[in-house]
Amino acid sequence: MAYFAPASGMNPDTQALYAANRLTVTRQLRYSAKHGNTLDVTLALNGVPVATLELKNPMTAQNWRHAVTQYKNDRDPSDLIFQFKKRTLVHFAVDTDEVYMTTRLSGKSTRFLPFNRGCGGGAGNPENPGGYKTAYLWEAVLERHSFLDILARFIHLQIEEKKLAGKRIKKETMIFPRYHQLDCVRKLVADARERGTGTNYLIQHSAGSGKSNSIAWLAHRLASLYTENDEKVFDSIIVITDRVVLDQQLQNTIYQFEHKQGVVQKIDINSTQLAEALGSGVPIVITTLQKFPFVTEKMGELPMRRYAVVVDEAHSSQGGETATELKGVLAGAAIKEEVRAKAEAEGLPDYEEEILKTMAKRGHQPNISFFAFTATPKYKTLEVFGTPGADGKPNPFHLYSMRQAIDEGFILDVLQNYTTYKTYYRLIKSIEDDPQVDKRKAARALARFMSLHPHNIAQKTEVMVEHFRHFTMHKIGGKAKAMVVTSSRLHAVRYKQAFDKYTKDKGYTGIKTLVAFSGTVIDPDAAGVEYTESGMNVDAMGKHIKEKELPERFGTEEYQVLLVAEKYQTGFDQPLLHTMYVDKRLSGIQAVQTLSRLNRTHPGKEDTFVLDFVNEPDEILKAFQPYYEQTLIGERAEPQQLYELQAKLDGHQVYYKAEVEEFCKVFYKPKPNQTTADHARMNACIDPAVGRYNDLDEDVREEFRKTLVAYRNLYSFMSQVIPFQDTDLEKLYSYIRFLLTKLPRGDRGPVYNFNDDVALKYYRLQKIGEGSIVMEPGARYEVSGPTSVGTGVARGDEIELSKLIDILNERFGTDFRPGDQLFFESIREDAVSDSNLRQAALANTMENFGYVFRKALEGLFIDRMDQNEEITAKFMNEDQFRDAVSKHLLKEVYEKIREEAEVANDQ
Which residue, 335, 779, 846, 877, shows the most beta carbons closer than 10 Å to its own? Predict the structure, then answer.
């Protein structure tokens, strides 16, 4: 029927056949003998109609919506020209400002999708100085070569099989690329053709962007990409997903694009399978990153080849030793050749040559191009994969923003309906003794005691169940589901028990729960009873639901509520999920990913709802705002920071340079020369440092350990973006990685359990706010990286238990106006979230930090003046009050920032 453009120009005959294709444009085509209806524009390929357009002119009071109505009401899908899979493949509703399209006419249920370029970070099209805003449609999309390319390499029939009411149902969808997908793939392919290998690309595409299709199109295009001189650009395409279990949707999509045997291979067994696929040169390989560290053990050295690595969810796949191993496997031959020449020229011993190889693996590889997709790029993701802009800072190569996806209706705005609750309570000491306790640790223990208290669990369960009954369960035609996000596995267990008990006691039907958590949980208040996920999830037949069955079972009409603890908060796609109940502190990317479980669209799903027991709306806004439009990078890391950390570590005299050197001689010994005695020799190099570490004072010991972690993390990141030539940095990095594993963790202090020492005297759960959290278009919110080298440790203050309870009661009790307390909490959280204050806190002592903090605090109060003018005026006008507030907040903010940094570094 047609001859499409060959991938290369090596066969003149195929070029001639391609040129012989006839594309025609017919105006006002009368397409059926049954009636006199005509189509504004019909496009045909070699006499076969493949696309239709209805054109409208806003100047005559008609627009694309009228065209859509015309397609739905006046175009009979049973007419041959519109029949699915038989004639036309796509239909466009066009006016001078916007374009919409569909691939299947189904009467009034036809769904048209935006086919616009996007404007200013949102929906629509930018102004066109040369004509209509929609001129790109005929100038760039429907142009002869472009349209033939779409027909040949983009449009395809997607087949999905779903289980509904126990029956397997096959759904067929004709996929036509959305504008941003077409634009992205074509720009990436054109740049790769021009530059060849060795370039990194960051694609910031929001949820709802159709990422699986974009990755599939890109992988197949790159696999058949040739230069202008008819030389293949890439020998193999490696698609990396960050999930241990391969993304089923992604692999199925890539498979459906190419049916030739041997073109695509998924690696779902082990690293031997991956080694065989790489060795045989399979064009497209789909695998997880975790299999690469073991490949070198399964195979010899790969020959010199050129690779395109397409990374799914790049924010979690760009760092660490596993990513380094990937580069080492794919670039091993080139690295070996380059390093050997340098080692021979400089007369380096074998182990120094191995060090140079390892350093080379971390950095840029001229035979590998990375194409990294993510909706939420971290600082490191931007630095490693971003394209330098005019200011030198890295930017995404291509952007499809969260804002545009929401504006175009591909995802829902999960912040549109956001309700917050606050817990007020009063505790009393129930024992005669008044022991001294570590203030911070005991405060956390008291907060945990409060959150796990049966009354707290019961009250929040009642709120959630009643809300679900009255507001959620009738949504989406009665199919709506909810997720409860808990702060720990024990919380998940107790909430599951509370939900089931409450609904049973009330006699409620249609609210059945599933719980998701890893491993085994022992409830200390239940006589050591052990709980597992499958043990708690029992269906109506009395059978336990296996972990891998849970997502599909939750999608059935049998279950409505899923309670989770660190599971299903990322990557979980359930369009019927409408409401989320949050009883966990969320921040940053974790907040975005967790709440975004609600954003999937579904017929009849018009909105979402969040009920939050823990987080402040401002905290959530600050988490989402950097990813609403293009993510910007803040202050950048400098190499000098690494040398400052190195000097600080050397100054402690815990390890000696000779020990590091001797360790590296063994660690970097060529593998064929390694013996079983080498492990003992490495330990012998590390153990003396462990002994010296144990002789340090507790505070110095903890500071040294944190500086080790800071050096390890910073070098692991910076070595990917800066080609260090200093082998001493690499040697220290390798030594530190193993030293950290042998250092004893310091006394973490007392572990408190106040179940028998404290009692709950008063409790009140109060709704304090409802409405929308509105993201701001055009706002500049930056993501920050590792820019400070301060690693001091805060000492734990001791306090009587009774005084600590008094402080907490003053803070959370009803003697204070809730609004006043919330105002101070908001100021504190503003300060903790401020990037400049975070940098200052991490780089300075509390005393030095105070100079910066006091200056910034006045601005924070002024920013929130309209929320509490009385307290703001008191702060501005009364020195004694201002000093007391500043002193109190200074300590809280300083310790909070450093505590969060410690947790992040330990992960």
Answer: 335
Report d(CA 202, CA 47) in Å as an integer: 41
Residue range(s) of every CATH 3.40.50.300 domain in the chain: 177-400, 434-601
Coil, helix or strand for 784? coil
**What's the pTM value of the predicted model, to 2 decimals?**
0.78
Residue 563: which of 616, 613, 499 has the closest Cα?
499
**Which among 794, 824, 809 is positioned nearest to 447, based on CA atoms?**
809
pLDDT at 149 over 60: yes
Structure tokens, 485 = 């996000």
Quick one: residue 185, left, alpha or beta (phi over 0 = left, psi -120 to 50 = alpha)? Answer: alpha
d(CA 289, CA 239): 9
Cα 98 from Cα 118, distance rounded (Å): 10
Residue 208's SS3 state is: coil
Q: Among all chains, which residue has been given the structure tokens 């817990």?
A: 423
374 sits in which H/E element: strand 368-374
Measure Cα distances from 346 to 339, 342, 350 in Å. Answer: 11, 6, 12
Classify domain 1-174 at the CATH topology level: tt1808, chain A (3.90.1570)
Are the C-beta atoms of 798 and 436 separated by less than 8 Å?
yes
Question: What percent of the chain shows pLDDT beyond 70?
Answer: 85
Q: What CATH number matches the domain at 434-601, 3.20.20.70, 3.40.50.10610, 3.40.50.300, 3.40.1280.10?
A: 3.40.50.300
d(C-alpha 577, C-alpha 574), whole Å: 6
Please give the Cα distance from 819 to 429 (Å, whole number): 27
Distance set, CA 39 to CA 54, 75, 77, 142, 143 (Å): 7, 9, 14, 17, 20
List, in order, residues 6 or more apart from 760 with CB less than 8 Å away: 425, 426, 427, 450, 453, 455
Biggest CA-to-CA distance, the chain: 97
Of 24-38, 327-341, 397-411, 544-558, the one with minimum mean pLDDT is: 327-341
pLDDT averaged over every residue in the chain: 85
pLDDT value, residue 744 = 86
Average of per-residue pLDDT across 455-472: 92
What is residue 237's predicted lDDT score, i.e. its pLDDT? 93
Q: Which two tokens stand for residue 857?
A: 């605090």
CA dihedral 261, 266, 268, 270 (to 10 degrees): 90
Q: How does pLDDT run across 554-599, given as a tens digit for each residue?
A: 999 999 999 999 898 887 889 999 999 999 999 888 999 999 999 9
Residue with tokens 């849970």: 550
H-helix or E-strand containing 762?
Answer: strand 758-771
Q: Give 308's Cβ-side CA count (13 Å radius).
A: 29
**Does residue 833 surpass a pLDDT of 70?**
yes
Q: Give Cβ neighbours of residue 270 (< 8 Å, ≥ 6 apart).
A: 291, 294
* Residue 5 main-chain phi, psi, to 5 deg: -60, 130
Give the separation between CA 752 and CA 450, rounded to whole angstroms.
13
Instruction: State the distance between the two ends of the chain, measured CA to CA, in whole angstroms.
Output: 58
Backbone angles phi, psi at 190, to 5 degrees: -65, -40
Q: What is the spatial distance between Cα 383 and Cα 367, in angstroms, rounded to a whole number? A: 20
Strand partners, 579: 482, 609
Output the pLDDT for position 788: 45
430: DSSP letter: -
**C-alpha of 46 from chain center:** 45
Cα separation, 56 vs 63, whole angstroms: 5
Q: What does the radius of gyration of the chain's CA atoms come to, in whole angstroms?
A: 31
Cβ-proximal residues to 319 (8 Å cutoff; 6+ apart), any chain: 380, 384, 716, 717, 720
Question: 3-class DSSP state for residue 312?
Answer: strand
Four-way CATH pick for 177-400: 3.40.50.740, 3.40.50.300, 3.40.50.2000, 3.40.190.10: 3.40.50.300
Which stretches does DSSP call E strand in 785-852? 798-800
